UniProtKB/TrEMBL annotation:
This is triphosphoribosyl-dephospho-CoA synthase. Its EC number is 2.4.2.52. One of its GO terms (biological process) is prosthetic group biosynthetic process. Gene3D superfamilies: Triphosphoribosyl-dephospho-CoA protein (1.10.4200.10). Signal peptide: none annotated. It holds the Pfam family CitG. It comes from the Bacteria. Keywords: ATP-binding, Nucleotide-binding, Transferase. One of its GO terms (molecular function) is ATP binding. It catalyses: 3'-dephospho-CoA + ATP = 2'-(5''-triphospho-alpha-D-ribosyl)-3'-dephospho-CoA + adenine. It comes from Noviherbaspirillum humi.
């Protein structure tokens, strides 16, 4: 851990006396959040989305924009883990999130690369910090329960208090579609009930994390209401994404022969229609974070 990383954890949590352990944990959780978003970025093929290979349906950003954005977020995820560890209320977490959004926009020249991820992975990092402060080990159940218990009421309020300017708000007013705020207020059901079981099942069967992430991404696209897709493609575009992704999974997903060509077909189709399931990409990053954080203890966690 660098001296700068150490200085970003203001004080040890009152429940957890060992400051060095707390600092190591927050630094490890922060790095894991950035790595999870990096794993999403480098995954290919991803229908309509930016990767190292191409920019999918996007003209204003490419993998370099995402890398600059990720670099700007490295201290944010550490800070929000520490805030969760210290028992911060939602308003404090929100202040960190708003500052991270500003830093991301400064790093990308005003392009929104990680707005949803700042919110979603940020809340997960805060929950990881909270669990570590109690001396427990993270598990999907503990993360979900912590999100609900510590910040559930405030997240419900955040879902109701929509800013009329955002794309998500415009979509909510036009379609019967929920978005990032509702997903978070419900304790990330798309991550815990849909993507994580799919990722784990494919990984157990194949032992190949790339295939597991592909299946998890397609499960998310088949299931969720993605405001990025609704904003550009309306209800017809959203139906197309869900049907195409469900068809890929029905054909056997990433376990079936010829899966890569089928995934590339969907990529080309979405690019033709200028559609990009950015919400599913964010939740894939969140799923990777949950999976890794619960797989083995992070440095600094009790027993690690
Ligand atoms: C809740 C957030 C993501 C804003 O959501 P909203 O729908 O209002 O805005 P916007 O359309 O700009 O962003 C939505 C983001 O969520 C992702 N997304 C889209 N659909 C979904 C979904 N169903 N589930 C999860 N994420 C989704 C998109 O990729 C996009 O990045 C958050 O940025 C926020 O609360 N902003 C307000 C300022 C703030 O309080 N920030 C700090 C919060 S800790
Ligand atoms: N690999 C990825 N490729 C594309 N989008 C991603 C990727 N990973 C995450 N995203 C999410 O998708 C969003 C991309 O936003 P997008 O450009 O589709 O919409 P916008 O900037 O809100 O508006 P517009 O539709 O006008 O471009 C980002 O905020 C990010 O949260």
């Amino acid at each position: 851990m660098t001296p700068l990383e150490r200085s970003l954890v203001p004080s040890a949590s009152p429940l957890h006396a060992d400051a060095a352990h707390d600092q190591a944990f927050c630094a490890a959780a922060g790095r894991l959040a950035v790595r999870s978003l990096y794993e999403e970025l480098v995954l290919y093929p991803k229908p309509g989305l930016v990767s190292l290979i191409d920019s999918g349906s996007h003209q204003d950003m490419d993998a370099r924009t995402f890398m600059r954005s990720l670099f700007s977020l490295r201290h944010y995820f550490l800070r929000i883990t520490a805030a969760g560890m210290a028992g911060a209320c939602f308003d404090e977490l929100k202040r960190l999130g708003i500052r991270a959004e500003r830093e991301m926009l400064a790093a990308t020249g005003g392009i929104n690369t990680h707005r949803g991820a700042i919110f979603c992975l940020g809340m997960l990092c805060a929950a990881l910090g909270r669990i570590a402060a109690s001396g427990a080990q993270p598990s999907p159940e503990a993360l979900r329960a912590t999100l609900r218990r510590e910040w559930g009421a405030a997240l419900m309020g955040h879902a109701d208090a929509r800013d009329a300017q955002t794309h998500g708000a415009i979509v909510a007013s036009r379609h019967a579609a929920s978005g990032a705020r509702e997903e978070m207020a419900l304790g990330l059901p798309s991550v815990f009930d849909v993507a994580l079981p799919r990722l784990q099942a494919t990984y157990q069967r194949s032992g190949d994390m790339r295939l597991a992430r592909i299946d998890a991404l397609f499960a998310l696209m088949a299931h969720m209401s993605d405001t990025n897709v609704y904003f550009r493609g309306g209800a017809a575009g959203a139906d197309m994404v869900r049907e195409q992704a469900a068809g890929f999974l029905q054909a056997g997903g990433a376990a079936a022969a010829g899966w890569e060509e089928r995934a590339l077909d969907m990529h080309r189709l979405l690019v033709r229609h200028r559609l990009s399931p950015g919400g599913a990409a964010d939740l894939l990053g969140a799923t990777c974070l949950v999976h890794e954080a619960c797989r083995r203890p992070l440095p600094g966690a009790d027993g690690a």
